[in-house]
């Protein structure tokens, strides 16, 4: 047991073979129905003080929450208060907190600025449920879970075909561990557990709601239907997004080498894509739109509720979209060649003159020697495909730039060769 814990906590490269083997070993240690032991292993041994639970307080949530009450009543339990829940669900949260003695249930709310920008009238779920889930669930949860090494979910294999291979422990592409104590429970097992411990039922369960999420996207299911058939009924959608890796619908180990976005000191999964021929302005989401395309279809992009980004190619003027910068969640500056310095000017204009505060990324020919200069111009994310550049970022071995001839922005910098006695007082 200790050997496995030490393997998982060692400061080894992300997703190395030993860590992946440690996860495989953990999955082989527990019987399929040993849910309490799986949870205790995660909370007490694997990630003590570094794990939280996420609960929908839905139809089956009482089972896992009861297990939490047995293992650690003070374990952080996060509830995504999307603003779209049934009143019965909000009442159920309070019922279970009191009944089970849970002392650390925390509500997470969507960012009010995102709601004002992308869902001002609260109807985004009708036209774009994926973006609605992203704003109301995925983003608030990611902000919190970034501070934990792992989290506990209530997912089960029987719920959908996509979950049919779910293990007790998963190593996800963001280098965290998901723990699924109820992975092997059937619906009959869940019902038996609730009856054995006399757990209170969700008020809507008896009315045919077997999987309960936000009210607009949840309906009752008929006898014999998939328990989650009532979620996003009639749409090609089975998950809200918080259980997706960008590499697939069920989280699984992926090589760090497949991730190209470097941000906040690490390579991460990247939800953004580039504009492609044939894309429709009204439909794209999480897409970097070239300046020329945005200008041509400006009205359609401004009317769209979907999150979009901007791509600035060499020769395109960011001045052309100054008044619309707040529309973009991310801006990508395309460095097509090492010798083309126009991208630096665009970055400085965005940060210093126009006050853009969102993600500013470099794409294209991003090389080791450029990154320090890019950072000085306000770029804070890099899409890297060059092997040497990648290795330098992973080892934090970028060359420093101690001397320069032109100060940047509001920094109190003194260019090389400046005569101190001729400098103007600050």
Can you tag this structure with a few keywords?
Adenosine 5'-phosphosulfate reductase; 426 residues; alpha/beta; adenylyl-sulfate reductase (thioredoxin) activity; 2 domains; 31% helix; single chain; 8-stranded mixed β-sheet; 14 helices; Rossmann fold; 6-stranded mixed β-sheet; PAPS_reduct_dom; globular
Describe the protein's architecture and organization.
- Helix content is 31%, strand content 13%.
- The chain has 426 residues and is an alpha/beta fold.
- It folds into two domains: 2-217, HUPs (Rossmann fold, 3-Layer(aba) Sandwich); 259-394, Aldolase class I (TIM Barrel, Alpha-Beta Barrel), CATH 3.20.20.70.
- α1 runs antiparallel to α2 (17-29) and α3 crosses α4 (61-71).
- The longest helix has 17 residues, at 129-145.
- The termini are far apart.
In brief, what are we looking at here?
This protein has 426 residues and is α/β, with parallel strands linked by helices.
Ranges with pLDDT <50 over ≥5 residues? Answer: 1-15, 244-256, 419-423
Strand order of the largest sheet: 8-7-14-13-12-11-10-9
| Distinct helical segment count | 14
Report strand %. Answer: 5-15%
The helix/strand series, from N terminus to C terminus, equals HHHEHEHEHHHEEEHEEEEHHEEHEHEH
Number of discrete domains:
2
Q: What oligomeric arrangement do these chains adopt?
A: single chain
Keywords: Cytoplasm, Iron, Iron-sulfur, Metal-binding, Oxidoreductase
Catalytic activity: [thioredoxin]-disulfide + sulfite + AMP + 2 H(+) = adenosine 5'-phosphosulfate + [thioredoxin]-dithiol
Cofactor: [4Fe-4S] cluster
GO biological process, one term: sulfate assimilation, phosphoadenylyl sulfate reduction by phosphoadenylyl-sulfate reductase (thioredoxin)
